[in-house]
Amino acid sequence: MMDQVQVSVGTAGVLGLAEVRMDVAPTTAYLMVGGRCVMNCGFCAQARESLAPAQALSRITWPPFPRDEVLSALAEAFSCRKVYRCCLQVTVSEQCLPETLALLGQVSSLSKMPVDASFLPGDMAQVETLVAAGLDHLGFGLDAACERVFKKVKGGTWERMWELVQAAAHQFPGHVGAHLIVGLGETEREMLQAIQELHDLGVIIGLFAFTPVQGTLLADRPPPAVDVYRRMQAARWLIVHDMASLEEFSFESDGRLASLGRSDWQGLLGGGEAFRTSGCPDCNRPFYNERPGGVMYNYPRPLAPREAAMALHECRFRD
């Protein structure tokens, strides 16, 4: 497979590698590095015990294409401003670091396209190696908002993961991100606690909605209710823009967010930016969490006024 690269189906369409009908095109090109992961995250199609197809990640298909064709098309798409950066989705294996470095080097040799990676480093030495090789952003797949959920759905050591995130954020400010998935069993307070702590570290926060994928361990778990996700989006946006903080919010006894602590929150959020895809620059991930015609958890484009108004209504604060 070294002579091939798995490409998200939307990216394949943008690069001209496949004919794909798209309502919204990805603004970042997404490539997958590796195959079945040695980890066993309950939500992931590439998990060790997953029965999902080998070409699946979340609800997206990632068909393979010849590496030379992908790299050539990628450089051309960047020069034409069809895509603005490349993101490598890396599964954990013995060869994931050298394979990531190889693909990073190949992309960088053909253009000045910024390259990010969703990569689970084993230690700070790997983080340093990736940044030294030119990686623009390193996204940690933290996913779970708290240790309780982390142990259930991911395994591994929560404390060690947090220590790595903290060390990387301290050493490489502005170049570290973290992914959080709403709907894995956390309370709203636990999610916002994680968001606040990551923001305080200077970490870029990408928010995802849990997406059940057939063949995974959590295939029967429902996605989060839209009102839960909207409240998390609204609070995250205020936190990362330093317009509010966790200590200003109020919560109900079950951890549900009751108030953002600001009477003007609808005016602040009325433009709809809070409900767009969040994460690294230029990352819109169209339909990564969504099905056409279903709930639009992360809008991959600016919201129309009626959509922004609906998103505000969907927050359903009780104050």
Short description, anyone?
With 319 residues, the protein is α/β, with parallel strands linked by helices. Helices cover 34% and strands 16% of the residues. It is globular.
Q: Which range does the strand content fall in?
A: 15-25%
CATH superfamily of the domain at 4-223: Aldolase class I
Quaternary organisation: single chain
Which class best fits the helix and strand makeup?
Answer: alpha/beta
Average pLDDT, rounded to a whole number, is 92
- Secondary-structure element order, N to C: EHEEEEHEHEHEHHEHEHEEHH
Count of DSSP-assigned helices: 10
Strand order of the largest sheet: 5-1-2-6-7-8-9-10
Measured between the Cα atoms of the first and last residue, the distance is 55 Å
Strand count, sense and closure of the main sheet?
A: 8 strands, mixed
Which second-level CATH architecture of the domain at 4-223 applies?
Alpha-Beta Barrel
- What ranges have pLDDT less than 50 throughout 5 or more consecutive residues? none
Q: What portion of residues is helical?
A: 25-40%
The tally of beta strands, per DSSP, is 12
User: Which class of the domain at 4-223 in CATH terms?
Assistant: Alpha Beta
Apparent shape: globular
- From the alpha-carbon coordinates, what is the Rg to the nearest angstrom? 19 Å
CATH topology of the domain at 4-223: TIM Barrel
